């Protein structure tokens, strides 16, 4: 079926409301060939689950295996920068397929088990308490600036063994790395600058851990180098990846979740009426309803039939979490924010062998954050108007620019 | 070396995401089914320590292990 939907996925309208656009595709043409950017757009929940669990058919080594220039078009003069970006991105463990991916994942996987992440819960709670104390003293809060950014940034910095005073710098560099998901033709300039700065920052930390391992995460990656699984360049690239992925996604979960509670005061009331019983479910619903990551890419390893379409070997694919988590075939009243939903089989963390490494850490942070808000604030309100809320123009991340709130 | 203690191993398919780490840690015990979710196909397939390591490494805590005869909970 041919749909009347425009193929430009970088308009303000689509970036601000992915649910209408990808929702329409999901209903009218769930495996859609986007002719403008020459890629498949996959939007149904069961197709996402199937695709992510068939890693032998869909390669994650997109930067390595895709010879085409990036979409949307970049400046010709930046194609050299793109080659540098490709080479760097291709070193990340998430950009590998089996069997190499399994060797790499085994190095890092054990650090992030649910049991080991529980040990971080007391620190997460302490940081949340301090941040909310400060906000109460000030009497105002931009959730993005004053809460959602500092919390995960501090935790991941502790985990990686990065000095506390360097956190503002890391965030500054991270913001350049977020250009990976944007559409501006000059984006490679910011992105490659972020990569260069991150490499420069991380390299001495890595060199130190190779010689003197500690119990932080960079030391875990350094151990991978000693075992011959990672090259030095890969350790550096993966350290940067974890620094970024370890906070950006949580920032969005916290902001989008608080906004959902503001828009649905009955659900906030429900959480407050039974915080102990509801905070885990509430966090899962925040993960589903307005997911931090909107879409992820793959490249076909062979010809694959999906619904009535044939995805050809080497075709590009982008699968949309935002539409899959609102699929009415899987979720009753999918657009409704309902914290009693259980089980909640959302795909906010993907699925299969590439299921988000940090999922358990994100869960600990989200659960404790929503719990702390509910314990402390009777009601939450926007300190701006709905039409002032703006999202970053990214096809990858669902990121508010700011979220000023008040409370009672 | 196979497991001598009789184990009852369950995988909760409401939460299993097919991360397949269990299959990596206890190769003879776990296998992915057609849906690419894990099944304990041979509860006696690997030594207990390996089965427990597999359960511990499940990123969504889908695996429980108990002694089939005594009912003693071994994981979590």
Give a summary of the structure in a few sentences.
Chain A is α+β, with helices and mostly antiparallel strands.
Question: What report would you give on this structure?
Answer:
The complex is a heterodimer of chains A (408) and B (76). With 408 residues, chain A is an alpha+beta fold. Chain A has a single domain (12-407), classed as Cytochrome p450 (Orthogonal Bundle). Helix content of chain A is 52%, strand content 9%. In chain A, the strands form three sheets. Chain A has a five-stranded mixed β-sheet with strand order 1-2-8-5-3, with helices on both faces. The radius of gyration of chain A is 21 Å and the shape is globular. Chain A starts with 11 loop residues before the first helix and ends with a strand. By secondary structure, chain B is an alpha+beta fold. In chain B, 18% of the residues lie in helices and 25% in strands. Chain B has helices at residues 21-25, 48-56; strands spanning 7-11, 30-32, 38-40, 63-67, 73-75. In chain B, the strands form two sheets. Chain B has a three-stranded antiparallel β-sheet with strand order 1-4-5, covered by helices on one side. Chain B has a two-stranded antiparallel ribbon with strand order 2-3. The longest helix of chain B has 9 residues, at 48-56.
List the helices and strands and how they pair.
The complex is a heterodimer of chains A (408) and B (76).
Chain A: H1 12-16, H2 18-28, E1 31-34, E2 39-42, H3 45-53, E3 58-59, H4 62-65, H5 79-89, H6 100-109, H7 114-118, H8 121-138, E4 141-142, H9 143-148, H10 150-160, H11 167-177, H12 187-211, H13 217-226, H14 232-263, H15 265-273, H16 275-289, E5 295-300, E6 304-306, E7 309-311, E8 316-320, H17 321-324, H18 359-376, E9 380-382, E10 404-407
Parallel strand pairs in A: 2-8
Antiparallel strand pairs in A: 1-2, 3-5, 4-10, 5-8, 6-7, 9-10
Chain B: E1 7-11, H1 21-25, E2 30-32, E3 38-40, H2 48-56, E4 63-67, E5 73-75
Antiparallel strand pairs in B: 1-4, 2-3, 4-5
């Amino acid at each position: 079926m041919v749909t009347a939907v425009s193929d430009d996925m970088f308009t303000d309208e689509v970036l601000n409301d992915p649910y209408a656009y990808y929702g329409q595709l999901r209903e009218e043409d769930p495996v859609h060939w986007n002719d403008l950017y020459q890629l498949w757009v996959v939007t149904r929940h069961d197709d996402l689950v199937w695709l992510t669990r068939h890693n032998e058919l869909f390669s994650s080594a997109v930067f390595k295996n895709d010879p085409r220039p990036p979409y949307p078009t970049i400046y010709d003069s930046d194609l050299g920068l793109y080659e540098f970006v490709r080479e760097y991105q291709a070193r990340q463990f998430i950009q590998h397929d089996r069997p190499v991916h399994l060797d790499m994942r085994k190095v890092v996987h054990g650090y992030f088990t649910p049991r080991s992440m529980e040990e971080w819960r007391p620190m997460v709670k302490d940081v949340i308490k301090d941040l909310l104390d400060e906000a109460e003293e000030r009497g105002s809060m931009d959730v993005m600036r004053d809460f959602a950014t500092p919390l995960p940034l501090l935790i991941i910095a502790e985990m990686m063994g990065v000095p506390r005073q360097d956190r503002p710098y890391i965030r500054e560099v991270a913001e350049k790395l977020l250009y990976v998901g944007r559409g501006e033709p000059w984006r490679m300039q910011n992105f490659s600058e972020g990569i260069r700065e991150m490499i420069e920052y991380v390299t001495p930390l890595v060199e130190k851990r190779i010689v003197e391992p500690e119990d932080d995460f960079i030391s875990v990656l350094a151990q991978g180098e000693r075992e011959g699984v990672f090259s030095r360049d890969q350790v550096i690239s993966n350290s940067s990846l974890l620094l970024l992925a370890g906070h950006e996604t949580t920032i969005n979960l916290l902001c989008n979740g608080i906004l959902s509670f503001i828009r649905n005061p009955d659900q906030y009331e429900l959480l407050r009426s039974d915080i102990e019983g509801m905070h885990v479910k509430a966090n899962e619903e925040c993960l589903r309803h307005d997911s931090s990551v909107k879409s992820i890419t793959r490249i076909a390893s062979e010809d694959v039939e999906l619904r009535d379409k044939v995805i050809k070997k080497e075709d590009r694919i982008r699968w949309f979490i935002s539409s899959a988590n609102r699929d009415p075939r899987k979720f009753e009243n999918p657009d409704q924010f309902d914290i009693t939903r259980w089980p909640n089989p959302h795909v906010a963390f993907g699925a299969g062998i590439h299921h988000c490494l940090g999922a358990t850490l994100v869960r600990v942070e989200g659960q404790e954050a929503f719990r702390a808000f509910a314990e402390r604030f009777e009601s939450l309100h926007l300190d701006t108007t709905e039409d002032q809320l703006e999202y970053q123009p990214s096809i990858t991340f669902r990121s508010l620019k700011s979220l000023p709130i008040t409370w009672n | 070396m196979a497991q001598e203690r009789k184990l009852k191993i369950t995988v909760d398919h409401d939460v299993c995401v097919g991360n397949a780490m269990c299959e990596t840690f206890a190769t003879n015990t776990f296998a992915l089914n057609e849906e690419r979710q894990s099944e304990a196909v041979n509860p006696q397939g690997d030594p207990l320590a390996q089965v427990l390591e597999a359960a511990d490494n499940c990123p969504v805590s889908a695996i429980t292990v108990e002694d089939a005869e005594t009912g003693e909970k071994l994981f979590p």
